[in-house]
Amino acid sequence: MSGEEEDLQRIFFLECEELLANAEQSVETLKNAASDAAINALFRAVHSIKGGAGAFGMDRLAKFAHAFESFMDLLRKGKAALDAAAVDLLFDGVDMLRLLVDESQNGTPAPAERYATAFAALRAAAGLEDEPAAETAADFDPMAAFADSAPAAAEPAAATSTYRIRFAPGPNFIKAGLDPLRIFAALKAMGSLSAEIDASALPAFANLDPEVCHYRWNLTLETAAPFADIDEVREMIDDLAQFEIEAPAAAPEPETLPPDETAAPAATAAASKPAPATAPAPAAEAKRDKPVATVRVDVPKLERLGNMVGELIITQAFLARQAAALDAETYRPLFRALDDMSQHIRDLADAATAIRAQPLKVVFSRFGAIVRDLEKNTGKRVRLEVEGEATEIDKTVVERLSEPLTHLIRNSIDHGIESPEKREAAGKDPVGRLRLRAEQRGSQVVIELADDGAGVNRERVLAKAIERGLVAQGAALSDEEIDELIFLPGFSTADTVTSVSGRGVGMDAVRATIGEMSGRVALSSRPGKGTVFSLYLPLSLAVLDAMAMLVGRQNYLVPIGDIVESLRPAEAAIVRLDRGRAMLAWRGAMLRILSLGEEFGVAGAIDDPTHCILVVVRAAQGEMLALQVDDLIGQEPVVVKSLEKNFRKVPGISGATILGDGRPALILDPQSLGSASARRRRLETVAEPTEA
Questions:
Q1: Which site in 149, 174, 424, 690 is 20 to 30 Å from 120, CA atoms measured?
Q2: How far is the CA of 403 from the CAs of 146, 367, 510, 512, 534, in angstroms?
């Protein structure tokens, strides 16, 4: 295979990811209610996959997509019912398409029995008697759906109507593999078609784009076909071209429309057509005329861009540190240039982060199929609700999120949501609710998976932990500590191993995977009400806004998004405890003071909190924690480097960086720092001998 063919295949597989995501979302829509738009979107996705598979000789994928497309064509024409069985068939079809794409891309064979069953079911539903041959590149017709669905030419004796159509391909029309000639062929099959070309939008030769159709057409169609057949052509290309159908006219002669003229008013069209006016709304028209241009870039190139931006940030910080020793009045132009450079680098870093960002829809769209499989395996009924799927996060995080979220969903359905009988007995809806929600909060993206099940049975969890030797007999643990046991390696409350759970593998892997992405996992649960898993993930794994702090002669950093407030406390605000420990009275609450000098054994750190600065940060489970530091250096963007990859995992530390003066500094993770410190203090208390 030539290098060009390899590039084309790679692009095809990238497009398959997007097409499959759209297909899964369309089927989810159809599960709730019939929708012509969703049916057409699903049809287009399957048709595009079929065409690419045929072009590259991927026979199994092409054959399956052909059967899928044939069944979709019956649904579009109303010749097959969109009932529960049909929806299940669509779900199975999309799942199998994903497996076959993976087979073609990575050589991982799709399960033979599952393929045979799904293929036979689709062929039977589509009424295909003989197994179709694989479609080749020469056979592929991107507009075949129109020719297949268009009726035969109208008989001369039939009553005809005349439609004027304004057809203007959008910028992405040809890029999507479509051809204006196919539109004309589909319309001509309905009757008599005449066309006048409009070249007013044709640019100068130097500005021509060979992948953009700059022509527009004014068409006149005389046909006995129903309006629905013409509108079907419009629906298939509605997001790729402007296709305005004007009310039937009395005269068949075409009349050139001005380039900027829109379709007839809605009132006139509604009075003379068998369907509502089809001229697009101004907002939709503008959206089609001005789509966002995209370009595909290899990930290594993005990695290189991110690394270069990181080096610029380090260099900029170094220059700022060196310039601080100069007189601001004498070197005013230099300081002004440094300020401008700092802003430009910040804008460049934001742009680099945005380039790497991907919507979570890519991951979320897959979970509908997982929930359906779990419903079949467990006998439970679950309604999945997805919110915030447009939230964007670093591409590396998106690629690694699928596995931990799958584990959490399996855990919620198997251990959290009760059976329909138990839910009805408890006065609940027999259909369990599973809500997957994402939102951006500052420099973090928070993903929540909430169920309305029975919640964590803490007595059972503790008993199982004691039984397996994970906790000492008679240990008194708080609710939060019991919840933490769920994440221990090998822990499971299941009595038997099933295809869903019971091996004690999953929750510890979730925490480990999220931790590797500089994130954290939190759990909150109410007995009888449900459980919420919260994943806190950084927007970017490369650049972070942080506050630099001094402890002794050591530098530490805390992400700006985790800081609530910094203050120098008065003596009255400090509540001193035994063994040199203290609490901070802050806004009506008592906060634990954590001395970083004591925590990390830093020599020369100030001991008295009234002579220090306290930085209030958000810790685990919504707790606030006061970090005791000697001084604040200032806010600066830093380049995050993994400490675990280059050294080992250190509790309370999420990474490391190089400051502007060339010295290394550790980046703190307040969530794990607070939890680790609390556990250590409890162990110290237990280890102390009791007085006689």
A1: 149
A2: 40, 11, 8, 12, 15
Per the prediction, the chain carries an average pLDDT of 78
Query: Tokens 């030419």 label which residue?
Result: 153
512 and 407 in a common domain? yes
The CA distance from 399 to 673, in Å, is 27
- Residue 472's pLDDT band, with cuts at 50, 70 and 90, is confident
What per-residue confidence (pLDDT) applies to 3? Answer: 62
What's the CA gap between 140 and 678, in Å, rounded?
Answer: 65
> Is 292 inside any structural domain?
no
Helical packing angle, 180-188 and 227-236, nearest 10°: 170
Q: Which residue has the tokens 């068409």?
A: 219
Helix axes of 36-55 and 59-76: crossing angle, nearest 10 degrees: 160
Q: Tell me: do 662 and 575 sit in the same domain.
A: yes
The count of structural domains within the chain is 5
Tens of pLDDT, residue by residue over 116-151, are: 999 999 999 988 865 544 444 444 444 444 444 444
Judge if 423 and 502 occupy the same domain.
yes
pLDDT score recorded for residue 677: 54
Using an 8 Å Cβ cutoff, are 454 and 461 in contact? no
CB 42 within 8 A of CB 89: no
Strand 543-551 with 382-387, pairing:
unpaired
> How many helices and strands (H and E) does the chain possess?
22, 22
CATH number at 426 reads 3.30.565.10
Q: How far apart are CA 674 and CA 208, in angstroms?
A: 61
Pairing status of strand 613-618 against strand 563-567? antiparallel
Q: Are residues 567 and 588 in the same domain?
A: yes
- Say yes or no: 59 and 204 in one domain: no
Decide if 195 contacts 254 (C-beta within 8 A): yes
Q: Which of 163, 190, 187, 168 is nearest to 247 (CA)?
A: 163
Q: What is the pLDDT of residue 136?
A: 42
Query: Which of 503, 538, 573 finishes a domain?
Result: 538
- What's the CA gap between 176 and 291, in Å, rounded? 13
Distance from C-alpha of 499 to C-alpha of 204, rounded to nearest angstrom: 64
- The neighbour count for residue 621, using CB atoms within 10 Å, is 16
| Contact yes or no for 644/652 (Cβ under 8 A) | no
Are both 161 and 217 inside the same structural domain?
A: yes
pLDDT of residue 565: 92
**Nearest partner of 345 among 546, 635, 637, 633, judged by Cα:** 637
Terminal-residue alpha carbon distance, the chain: 83
* H-helix or E-strand spanning residue 352: helix 332-356
Q: Report if residue 289 sits inside a domain.
A: no
d(CA 179, CA 76) in angstroms, rounded, equals 22
Of residues 421 and 361, more confidence is placed in 421
pTM of the model: 0.58
Whether residue 614 is contained in a domain is answered as yes
Q: Pick the range with the lowest mean pLDDT from 132-141, 178-187, 536-545.
A: 132-141
Instruction: Mark whether 256 and 384 lie in a shared domain.
Output: no
Strands 432-441 and 382-387: parallel
CB atoms within 10 A of CB 351: 12
CATH number, domain of 95, equals: 1.20.120.160
Banded model confidence at residue 506, pLDDT cuts 50, 70, 90: low
Residue 279 confidence class, pLDDT cut points 50, 70, 90:
very low
Candidate from 64-68, 256-260, 640-644 with smallest mean pLDDT: 256-260
Same domain as 497, residue 378: yes
Q: State the sign of the Cα–Cα–Cα–Cα dihedral 104, 108, 109, 115.
A: negative
Average pLDDT over residues 20-43: 86
Residue 98, pLDDT > 80, answer: yes
- Identify whether 317 is part of a domain: yes
| Range(s) of the domain holding residue 323 | 299-358
